[in-house]
Every structure is written in C-alpha cells, then in structure tokens.
Write a structure and sequence with these properties.
With 343 residues, the protein is an alpha+beta fold. Helix content is 31%, strand content 20%. The longest helix has 29 residues, at 167-195.
C-alpha cells in the first residue's frame, strides 16, 4: 500500500508560513485522519516523516545526528526535531499549567487584556423584582499594554562536534534548554503575580506578625497560614507557590506531618497542604515569600510563539549558532485572586 507521506517534497520554506508551524503544514499535506485503521495510526505527520527516512530519535537504537543530513529532504526535519525536544523539556520542568487560568495565543509583542473588578455591591447577586433592572458587571480592556518577552538560549555547536552523537544523548541537552526557558517564563509569571502587569494591580501583601496575620515576624506558624487562607473569600486558595526556605519551614510544622500527607508526598512527590491547596516549590519565588492564589482566576498566559529555532542555520549551516526562543507574557485577571505572605 502506497502512503502519501512517502512522496511529500520537504523544503525549508515550510517553516516560514505565516500563522502555520512546520508540523501544521505537514498535517495539511498529509492528514493523520487518512491513516485510521492502518499500522501508522497514532503517528502525526512529522513522526511519519521520521519513519520515511528511518530516523530513530530515542531508545537504545537511536540514530546519530548525522542521519538527519543524509538527504536534503531529511535535513529539513532537523529544526522541528530540535523544537519538539526543547518543548518537551519545557513542559516537563515547568509548573505554569498549575498556576494559569487560561492561555491566549497572540501574534505580536504588545497585548491588551480585559479586566472586571466588581465592587462589593456588584458581587452580591440580589433578587431581581419583576420589571427591575438586572445588575451589571462591567468588563473592560486594561489601560496599559502587557508586554511579551522573548526568552531563549543560543545553541552553539558545530556539525563535526555532534554528528556522531546519538540523538537520544543530544536530546538531553535540548531538554535542558527547554527547562531553562520554562524557568525564565515562570520568573515572569511570579513577577506579574506579585507586582502586577503594569495596570496598578499588584497582589495584596501581608506580613507574619502584622494584622490580620498572627504570629511572630520571621517565623512561620500554622495559625499564620490559617489567617492568610481566610483572606481569600470569595476566592479559594487552591495553589501555593513557595520559596525553598518557606517549603522547608512548612514541612517542619506539626500539622504537615500528618501520616496521610506524608504518604502522598513520598508516593507521588506532590504535597497537598492541610488547607487543601496544592503546594509548589520554586526558586523563582523570593526567599521568605509565599504566594497564595486561586488558579482559576488569577493569571492569564499570553503566548506569542511556541518554541522557535533558526531553521536556516540548522539546515544550511548544520548548527554553528542557532537561537532557540519562545515569546510569552502574563496578565493579571482578578487581582484579589492572588495574595502574598511575607514570613
């Protein structure tokens, strides 16, 4: 049986289509739906091209980097391979999906989000009498633009230096680059959560030992966490971002030494607090700081582009120096849905 993917002519111009990634272009030329009920079902268009040129990218039998450059057509696949592995590293190491309410795709560098900040009177859903006007909730665009930032790493290597390296081994370096980019995006997200996105919407900040938070400044107690938790009504503090030192202090609290909590942590590596919030540790949070948030309402992630590589250099010059970048930014949705606690 002849398959369409075996006859597609690959060229680097497939990377430059506006609004289309290389993978999307391949899918248009070779739709995956045509392979239902065949041995190739479950593979996407790019994976079918790897099969076409017999390129094995992982496992003990993975090929060497030079396998991509055996033909002009197969060389075109290399930037997409780099992009996918970097994206894998980004997704494996980032916790952005745990703190963002929504992700918006946007083609540009300046984005204007929307906001709805109801008063206490507007929050109350009072009974509407017959013929009376229904209360309104105003939704408006933000006054100031949210700037998106390009984050990335420069891949510096000659073809001669890596041509005989196994793709599985080379992927480790690429995944690490993705992890670096993901951490940089996380730092941007933490900055927006605490300081706002430029629209005068920083997170309300509290300090242990200062009303309404009980305790002694510099010491974290369970009572202080309860006081902090109580500040979130009508939102729910379902996620906590903490610095490494605060994480250590929390684990030493008696209330966090519940056997069931410990078993869950030992078995999955995930720690659910006695307050019901998911606890996430990251060095992107400043020392002595805890950020509580309702992940359903606090933060919007704006993605300007997915992982992008300089395909000309990867195809024509066989590496040398190639930038691997991602454009992303963050906007506050409801300022009261995120709050900061200083220990």
């Amino acid at each position: 049986m002849a398959y369409r993917f075996e006859d597609i002519r690959l060229e680097k111009g497939m990377y430059g289509r506006s609004g289309r990634t290389f993978a999307q272009t391949l899918e248009e030329l070779d739709p995956s739906e045509h392979y239902r009920g065949t041995p190739l079902e479950g593979l996407d268009a790019f994976q079918r091209q790897l099969k076409r040129f017999d390129i094995k990218v992982k496992g003990r039998g993975s090929d060497m980097v030079e396998k991509f450059f055996h033909t002009t057509d197969s060389a075109v696949l290399f930037p997409e391979f780099v992009s996918r592995v970097v994206r894998q590293g980004l997704e494996e190491q980032t916790i952005l999906s745990d703190i963002t309410a929504t992700v918006t795709q946007f083609d540009g560098l300046d984005y204007r989000s929307i906001a709805s900040v109801p008063t206490e009177e507007e929050k109350a859903l009072r009974r509407v009498e017959e013929g009376a006007q229904i209360p309104q909730t105003a939704v408006r665009t933000q006054e100031n633009l949210v700037r998106l930032h390009k984050r990335g790493r420069m891949l510096v290597a000659s073809y001669e230096a890596i041509r005989f390296q196994r793709l599985d081994l080379f992927s480790v370096t690429l995944r690490q680059i993705g992890a670096y980019i993901g951490h940089q995006h996380l730092q941007d997200a933490v900055t927006v959560l605490t300081d706002g996105d430029g629209n005068e919407n920083p997170a309300p900040a509290f300090t242990v030992g200062t009303k309404p938070i009980s305790g002694t400044k510099g010491t974290l107690s369970y009572e202080a966490l309860l006081d902090f938790w109580s500040q979130f009504d009508p939102y729910t503090m379902n996620t906590m971002l903490v610095s490494p030192d605060v994480m250590l202090a929390m684990l030493k609290l008696t209330e966090f030494q519940n056997p069931l909590t410990g078993l869950n942590f030992q078995g999955t590596g995930s720690l659910t607090t006695p307050l019901g919030a998911k606890l996430l540790r990251t060095s992107a949070v400043p020392a002595g700081t805890l950020i509580g948030l309702d992940r359903s309402y606090a933060l919007e992630q704006i993605t300007g582009s997915e992982i992008t590589v300089e395909y000309d250099k990867l195809i024509d010059r066989q590496l040398e120096r190639a930038a691997i970048t991602s454009v992303s930014g963050f906007a506050k949705l409801f300022p009261e849905a995120a709050k900061v606690l200083k220990v």
